[in-house]
Structures
1.
Amino acid sequence: MRIIPAIDIKDGKCAQLVQGKPGTEKFYGNPVDIAKSWVEKGAEILHVIDLNAALGSGDNLKKVKKIREVVSVPIQFGGGIRTYEKATEILGLGIDRIILGTLAINELETVERLCNEFGRDRLIVAVDSKEGCIVVEGWQKKTSLKAENFMATYENVCWGFLFTDVDVEGMMQGIDEEELMRVVKSTSLPVIVSGGMSSKGDVRKAGDIGAWGVVLGKAVYEGILDFEDLV
C-alpha cells in the first residue's frame, strides 16, 4: 500500500483544514519546500490540492508548477478542475493524474472526453462522502447520490477513485471502517483513501480492507504519525 503525503495549498502556503471548512486552516510553510522534504523522506507520490481553486477564491498554479519542477515523483492534483479547459491546462503542466469531483458529478460526457483524449490512467474521480452521500464544490454542497452508486457510473472512464470521508477528515479521531469497506468493496478499481487517519492502526486497517493507498495530512504535519516510519 502507498503512503501519500498531502500538500494542500491555500494563499500560497501549505495548509490543513478541518472537514474542509474555511476558517479552520492551520499553515505549515512553503509547499514547494515541503514537497521536496516529503520526497527526501521517501514519498513515491504527492497528493497536491489547490484549496483556493476548490473554494472558488483564486488559485495557486504558480506553486503547483514549481512543485512539478522540483520533484520527479508522480503528482496527483485536484482542486477547482470544473471545466474541460481547466483539466487540459493542468494535464499540460505534466501532472500525472488529475482528481475530478464537481466536474464528474455535473459532466460525465466531459470526463469521457478527457478519458478518450488523455487516457483513463490520468484520471481519478473523487468520491467525497458525507453521511454516505456525495458532496461537491469544496465539500460545501451535499447531493443525494450514494457513494457506491456514483462510483459505478465511472468504472470505465478513470484509473481509480479518491475516497474522502468528510465526516472524519481533519478530526484525527480515526476512520469509519464500515464506510471505508463499503466503498472499497464496491469497485474493482484502485481506491485511495483520505481522511481520519490518526494512528498506524488506521493505516493498517485501510490496507487490510483493500485500499491501494492512503493520503496523510494533518496527522503527519502535527507529528502524530511518523511518515518515514510508515513508509
Note: The chain has one domain: 2-230.
2.
Amino acid sequence: MNPFPLILSSPSGGGKTTIARMLLDRREDLGYSISCTTRAPRNGEVQGQDYHFLSRDDFVSRRARGEFAESAEVHGNLYGTLRSEVDRVFSAGRHVVMDIDIQGARQFVAAYPESVLVFLLPPSAETLLGRLMGRNTESPEAVLRRLKGARDELAAVGSYQYVVVNDALDQAFVQVASIIDAETVRHRRVPLLEDRVRQLVDGLDREITKYARAT
C-alpha cells in the first residue's frame, strides 16, 4: 500500500473530528499525526500523546526551518503539523487522518500534493445554524465569528475532491471509509504499478510463445 493523507474539513460543528475519531477507532490502516501547540497543557493532557507542547520560540524556529506541513494561530496560540509526524505514520504503512480547516488544508496540500480532500457538509442551513449556535455559552461577537468562518469555509467546497453530507453520522462514516478504499486502489497509488504490469505482460508473452510453438 502507498499511504496518503486524508484531510477532513467542515464548518464548525460539521463533524470532522467525530468522523476522524471513528475512522481511527475502526480501521487499522489509518494513523493520527500528533499536532504541536504553544498553549499550555490542559488537565489530563499528556506531552507527545495529546499534543507536542512547544514554547513559542521553539515553534517559530521550527516553522522558519520549514518543519511544519501546516500551521496557524488560533486565539493567540500557535498550532501546526510537523512533517516528521506525517512521515512517522507513513513509515508504519498507514494513511494519515487530518481534521483541519480550509486554511490548514491548503498549506498541507502544498506540502503533500497526494492528499485526498473530503468536505463534510451539514444537511441544511438550519442544522448548521443549530450546531453553530447550540452551545448558548458564547457572546454575540463569538457567534458572529463562527458564522462568518462557516460562510468562508463553505465557499471553499469546490476545491475539495469529495463532498459528504453528514446527515446521519454512521452513513457519513461509511461514505468516507469507502473513499479511502477507492483511493487506496487507484492506479496512481499502487506502488511500482508499471513494473507489475510489465512482469505480467512478459509472463503472458512467454506463455503465448510457448503455446504458439506447440500448435
Note: The chain has a mean pLDDT of 87.
